[in-house]
Specification:
This protein folds into two domains: 154 residues, no CATH class; 216 residues, Beta-clip-like (Beta Complex). The chain has twelve helices and twelve strands. It is an alpha+beta fold. Helix 2 crosses helix 4. It is globular and about 70 Å long. The protein is 31% helix and 13% strand.
Length: 414
């Protein structure tokens, strides 16, 4: 889907989207949806260049086509997409997410198709706009727009709440309240950095070997000066490694990986390239920081965080990834994993880094090893492609999204 991520603007963006769409679409439902989505954005890109005019400058469009060497035979298709995209814009207005909600073809129970929507004119469009002027439609369209942004590459991949909590939602035939549905379809909240709230630590004892001259309570991952601030560069003022080397734009893609559920796929700049080298920081696991004894050892969705700059490398807090967290909570298990969790200093704070343990190529799933003790504690057997036996050698206590289904089935059986 990276082919749809276009950085240009205006008419150039519209022309580039048109050419890329021809590569991506086929005679499938998803191809029809992509066509609809890209047509909308072609029209948006062109019409943003109007500069007060009723219509975009046709001469400018032709000039851009000449610049990029468009043949005469290619040009009618572009203008067809532009007209269709303007129709979609007149239907959706401020609810761009409707593009994901309008049926592709007439099916039961309503028998309404996309062509029925596209045939609306004038007063019919105004009536339709009044009908959908409703908080429920607004919230549903907002969730759908987030999905569309992921497809276009203008938003990082995220897991929707239903994918994690009710992966069989699409097969349900029972009644569901509007509030439940809206909660299910929203993207799961994500955080670039761990969240610290001093109130969570107000009554918590100091971690073992906490230095006497350090305040408490304080962010248990903060590094006061003049102590070493970063493992990723030479300590210096203005270090920004957490932004440039950890929270980087080239994030893994969320992907369904068969019976393991949702996982993370490595993405390189070009197909076939190396995505990450051994020892490279892929990102960081984030969540809400809670005191070190808040949850029992090997609890679901909990990581215990150590600090190697204190005597004995004590556990100073836990990271709760059950709520708002980074995409790396979706890592799956493999007995021959490609990454590990490891505490690292970055720009004045300890982070739970996701570090490549070997070279990882484009398209490969990024995995960690949960470990024998943890999986046994959860009543789960290894289900990875490498082996059907229990797992070994996992240092951090976390179960992440790919095995959530196994854990849920186990708990239901109990």
């Amino acid at each position: 889907m990276g082919l749809l991520k276009v950085d240009s603007t205006g008419i150039e963006r519209a022309l580039e989207l048109t050419r890329r769409l021809r590569v991506l679409t086929g005679r499938t439902a998803f191809g029809a949806f992509l066509t609809r989505l890209v047509q909308y954005h072609i029209a948006e890109a062109v019409d943003d260049t109007k500069a007060g005019r009723l219509r975009a400058d046709g001469a400018e469009i032709q000039k851009a086509m000449n610049k990029f060497g468009w043949k005469e035979a290619e040009r009618p298709r572009f203008f067809q997409y532009l007209r269709q995209g303007r129709s979609w814009r007149s239907i959706c207005r401020e609810h761009v997410g409707l593009l994901s909600l309008i049926p592709l073809k007439a099916e039961a129970p309503y028998g309404v198709s996309a062509s029925d929507y596209l045939s609306m004119k004038g007063g019919e469009l105004d009536t339709f706009a009044q009908m959908i002027d409703d908080p429920f439609v607004t919230d549903l369209a907002t969730a759908a727009a987030a999905f569309q942004d992921m497809v276009l590459g203008t938003r990082h991949d995220a897991v929707f709440v239903w994918e994690k909590s009710q992966p069989q939602l699409h097969t349900w035939e029972s009644y569901m309240t509007e509030a439940t549905l809206l909660d299910m379809v929203r993207p799961h909240p994500s955080e670039e950095d761990c969240f610290y709230d001093e109130r969570d630590f107000a009554d918590a004892p100091k971690p073992p070997c906490w230095l006497e001259d350090w305040a408490w309570p304080m962010d248990p991952l903060g590094i006061p000066l003049p102590h070493k601030q970063c493992d990723l560069c030479v300590d210096a003022s203005g270090c920004c490694c957490r932004r440039t080397k950890v929270n980087v734009a080239r994030k893994p893609q969320i992907k369904s990986v068969g019976k393991q559920g949702i996982g993370l796929q490595a993405l390189a700049t070009h197909e076939g390239d190396l995505a990450y080298r051994k020892g490279e920081i892929i990102g960081q696991l984030t969540g809400r920081l809670v005191p070190r004894d808040s949850h029992p050892y090997n609890s679901l969705w909990i990581v215990e965080m150590r600090r190697f700059d204190l005597e004995g490398d004590p556990i100073v807090c836990q990271i709760d990834v059950g709520g708002s967290a980074s995409t790396f909570r979706n890592l799956n298990h493999s007995c021959r994993s490609s990454a590990r969790f490891i505490p690292r200093r970055a720009s004045g704070r300890w982070i739970m880094a996701v570090e490549a343990t070997r070279d990882v190529r484009h398209g490969e799933q990024i995995t960690i090893n949960f470990g024998k003790a943890f999986l046994r504690n959860q009543g789960i057997r290894c289900d990875c492609e490498e082996t059907n036996t229990m797992c070994t050698n996992f240092g951090a206590s976390i179960l992440v999204c790919g095995s959530t289904g196994h854990a849920r089935r186990f708990m239901e059986a109990k």
